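COMPLEX REQUEST
Ligand: histidyl-adenosine monophosphate
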Amino acid sequence: MITKPRGTNDIIPGEIEIWQFIESTFRQVCRDYGYEEIRTPVFEHTELFLRGVGDTTDIVDKEMYTFQDRGDRSLTLRPEGTAPTVRAFLENKLQAGPQPVKLFYWGPMFRYDRPQAGRYRQFHQCGVEVFSAADPAIDAEVIMMSMDYYRRLGLDNLALHINSVGCPRCRPVLHEKLREYFSPHLDELCHNCRTRYEKNPLRLLDCKICEDKHTEDIPTTLNSLCNECLEHFEAVKTYLDLLNLPYHVNNHLVRGLDYYTNTAFEITASHIGAQSSIGGGGRYNGLVEVCGGPPTPGIGYALGLERIILTMREQGCPVPATDRMAVFVVNAGKAAEKTAFKLMFEIRQAGIPADKDFLNRSMKAQMKYAGRINARFVVIIGDEELAESAALVRNMDTKEQTKVPFDQLIPFIKDKY
Ligand code: HAM
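STATUS: Structure written out below.
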């Protein structure tokens, strides 16, 4: 038997209901906050991620699904949704329309990482990106929106971590401080951190392996910010306070993508194992320019749907039941089968979900099956019903049975349904 590739998942009936619920809830939140949907291709030119996500990130360094197509172009299955959204924003000239541009997306992402609970090679994200708004109020909106979504899913006990990673003006100051701090300990650092030391010292702050080498006096982002960045961060906090949204300022939070400037945030859930980050995002005021556009501020987040579902299961969040099958048409005997078949389509065409037996089962077995699929009504047609041109309608909840002429069947069910 051929099995699914490592790190991927099937979502089968019985599991799909929670996916449909979290998707419809996300769409509702996006509608309430004024965000419009964008859909971009699942693969892009590799160059987009090299430039956009950054070549000192783990994603670009070792996690991309990159391949040459038959035309010898280098393409990559998208590892994230921000760079593609920026590309689409520019390519479709959305900057020419009303500003700010508030977009949302939903879909599969691909990263070649070692699979474990909560970490997959194909996983799903929902996310938003906002272009052309530099106001700290939009940072607070975006953060609040992600927390509002979790709340609507019934999640609680989540921790919101926020930080500011500065801008190209203050970043070199921090880089210098970090190099100075780490230079006496260079040979104690892990292989990756030695590269980070050269290329992007900011990332030294969030290495899990070298964490124990950090002491209290390690330089942090917050004590290296320029005045403008500090003011922006203070204003974001003021807006969050205005919304009574609790947060932790975590000045070691730098996130694993190179494009962030100013606000960075992450939401964690305890109890779902090592992969506790259920979402994250931040501002990326330089990314549109890096992708070939005019200077345009941007901010957004992406939330990991598999991790949201793990957390919902862990916390026992209820999922609303999906629609029940309204009608199951049972034919008692061969003669009634064609009438049952035709009737089922008439019921469906009237907009009422209906089904029937396709396995030549006995009437008893059909009734049992109708019970298993939790049908609300069973419409029974046997010889007697055929002769009378009327069906026996059984309400499966109350067990009440009514004889209804064929031509009144649809209004009868519509009335009760
Ligand atoms: P990210 O932190 O790389 O950010 O991913 C966001 C979320 O996707 C994570 O918090 C996690 O829940 C989920 N996730 C990431 N990798 C995996 C995986 N291998 N398996 C399962 N879930 C995973 C971004 O992707 C940025 N584009 C977010 C953003 C949008 N920043 C600004 N705008």
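REMARKS: The chain is about 35% helix and 20% strand. The first strand starts at residue 36 and ends at 37.
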